[in-house]
Amino acid sequence: MTTEVRVPTLGESVTEATVATWFKKPGEAVAVDEMLCELETDKVTVEVPSPTAGTMGEIVAAEGETVGVNALLATIAEGAGAAAPAEAKASPAPAVAAPAADSAKSVDVMVPTLGESVTEATVSTWFKKVGDTVAQDEMLCELETDKVSVEVPAPAAGVLSEILAPEGATVDASAKLGVISGSAGAAAAAPVAAAAAAPAAATTGKDVANAPSAEKAMAEAGLTATQVTGTGRDGRIMKEDVQTALAAGTAKPAAPAPAQPVAAPRAPVPADDAAREERVKMTRLRQTIARRLKDAQNAAAILTTYNEVDMTEVMALRNTYKDQFEKKHGVRLGFMSFFTKACCHALKEVPEVNAEIDGTDILYKNFVHMGVAAGTPQGLVVPVIRDADAMSFAEIEKAISEKGKRARDGKLSMAEMQGGTFTISNGGVYGSLMSSPILNPPQSGILGMHKIQDRAMVINGEIKIRPMMYLALSYDHRIVDGKGAVTFLVRVKEALEDPRRLLMDL
User: Fold this and answer.
1) Which of 90, 106, 183, 336 has the most CB atoms lying inside 10 A of its own CB?
2) Count of CB atoms within 10 A of residue 20's CB?
3) What is the pLDDT of residues 180-217, one digit of tens each?
4) Which parts pass through the membrane (predicted)?
5) What is 287-504's CATH topology?
6) From start to end of 31-157, where are the E strands?
7) What CATH class has 93-202?
8) What is the pLDDT of residues 112-133, one digit of tens each?
């Protein structure tokens, strides 16, 4: 006999919900009133208990799907067939012994190479759960380091039988993340993992664990379970319990270990304002960006000089040749190649802008590894175009396009963001009219580009409308004097206002 599991009544005016988490998988034994899954609506989180005892059958609505009231979620098989799995779950001894025959076929999932000088990472997301079948090279999880996100593929096909580093855990470069059981032992892996997890859950003193959404909310708010009163079954903490505790001010976030100096304690917030706030933990990448930018301000004597450039000639040249350029080279002709070429040209005349301080020495670079700052959903990254001074316009455009795409997709390697000698940051793509960029240590110079805006300019005694852009050069005054900085910016301006100078090396 089969029993249907359907979406319960969700509340007044609520007509649909999203399946957040399944606590059971097909084939697992379930008891009456045992939690099967969790639904999330616009207002509350709803737990769905099992209407009967039996064996979990088909899951019709997968995690992430939106379902309406009374929609079919899953089926449960009743009868004699359900007794054996239930008994097996109750007795841990056979389950623990099950993997012994296949232990030799297990494959460890290890932290991949993280890059030079990177010794640890944070597990940000697991794409698979214990018991899930995985194919070789299928993505298992994603790690976040100080600089990039690293995907971890499955080293072999099989079943993910164990997760040793849960989401949020910090692991070193040689840590084991999980275990994959080979195909021969795959069938036994899921029951073993479930049985092994049962004693751990019992130690919490609850029949079921806290809602996953609540665990995430507590982690983001810096709370522990003891600081929140659960209203779910058997004291289970729900997502709204965390929100209620924060709004009422009864739970104060646990103070994290001070990784960096804190300027001042946060002022008290009224309860009605706190209820409308959202606290999200900074990613490791964002923490690193914040730390490096502040370190740059603390270590270097940053000064910024400004100028403006008439973009008429560059725009005319681009409009004339852009179609032919794209047809021949397979990439669009943008403004970045002009700016990169102009900067490389100026750096030859003012080499201290392309140098760095090392103790009491100055390291002059007889090459240009150009950093091109790129905004991504995860934060600002600076991929490096190596030997940009030896590249053609087409080679520069191809490199910028390829690295920009990899940056947005989070696919940049550590090596691709190291070794830059100078940086260009284009705030104009976001509409910035003028700004003062911050140095990218240990570099001594960074050029800030801005939006092109038509302005009235006096040309040969006549007022004309010209497309103008403000340029900003931030530099380390410890190594670059004002004369050098101004000369550099003037040379960039001259090269852009008369691009023929680049061809003639003038």
Assistant:
1) 336
2) 18
3) 987 544 444 444 444 444 444 444 444 456 665 677 67
4) none
5) Chloramphenicol Acetyltransferase (3.30.559)
6) 35-40, 45-49, 54-59, 66-68, 72-77, 107-110, 120-126, 133-134, 139-144, 149-153
7) mainly beta
8) 877 655 678 888 888 888 888 8
